[in-house]
Automatic annotation (TrEMBL):
Protein name according to UniProt: Adipocyte plasma membrane-associated protein
Native source organism of the sequence: Tinamus guttatus
Keyword Glycosyltransferase among UniProt keywords: no
Pfam families in alphabetical order: SSL_N, Str_synth
Domain Strictosidine synthase conserved region: 170-257
Transmembrane domains' residue ranges: 7-30
Domain of life: Eukaryota
Amino acid sequence: STYSGKVFRVTFLTLAVSLIIPLLGAIVLLDCPIDPQPISLKEPPLLTGVLEPNIKLRKAERLWEGQLVGPESIVNIDDVLYTGTADGKILKIEDGELQTIARIGHGPCGRPEDEPTCGRPLGIRVGPNNTLFVADAYHGLYEINPDTGETKMLVSTKTLIEGQKLSFLNDLTVTQDGRKIYFTDSSSKWQRRDYMFLVMEGTDDGRLLEYDTVTKEVKVLMTGLQFPNGVQLSQAEDFVLVQETTMARIRRYYVSGLMKGGADIFVENMPGFPDNIRLSSSGGYWVAMSTIRPNPGFSMLDFLSEKPWIKRIIFKLLSQETLMKFVPRYSLVVELSETGSYRRSFHDPNGVTVPYISEAHEHNGYLYLGSFRSPFIGRLNLQHV
């Protein structure tokens, strides 16, 4: 018995040392791809009241499952839907049939390393002449004729804007007359395929920009943003809302009126990390949360926010895809009032039906749910929730 105990201890210590020494060596010797900065986040809001967890998103149906992948953003012209997908396509969905109408990049597609050439259309909007305005993360800002597929570049990512490159075009919003396009560049350092690096590093080089379709000029409206993501003009078009994903908040920039050129916080300390934002029929806004900040509960991103040293260790040992497996699939969409208060929330704990929701687009009594990773579009009947 004594001999067996000694053998066990020696064996255990030998195994422990054989694992710990290489691990310590990797931590010390391997380079970290990011230079994380501490981020100060408030304690997440309690999920009570209108934010009380429910399973309303589980009532959504999956449409065209397996026929498309990563439909990030969705628009409609009458009852015809349009979306951009992870394989670089702009798709038209009419009477249940899918048709590729345009492609900004070129193949091959499918792997993360293919994205810079394949292209990744993210934000998509409809202009006053029923043309599509598309923000491609790698190539730039485009206008597409949905009938002919004719594609026109408006702003190239190869063009320096005030001395800084565009590396990660994300979303856009267009004035009713089509004169101005407001769009986000999430980072001048990281590309879309490295979005986890951008989040975990806390990079603050994102910008809100304005493109004038008449003068062809691009202006920088806001700088120093941490992962600026979805954008939305107000109904009166007097301000633009910008989702600042890393900081779990929405910024507001005034584009007209007495406050023109000023900025403030529209909503802060949100219950999740916001992706896209779109108008709701009630005069408010739909906000899709890419992941939740549970309270009560544990939020990995909140826990790591002020611990750069742990982030360095993580990214020395794990890839972005591996890290994504630890991000909860909890799906959340909230509706905000015109003043930024919470009206209602739709939840799907564990992301059973539609995981990783990137956008909620309302049309004809339905909420169409985009997802940057799912092979389908979700549809929720708003009369049944």
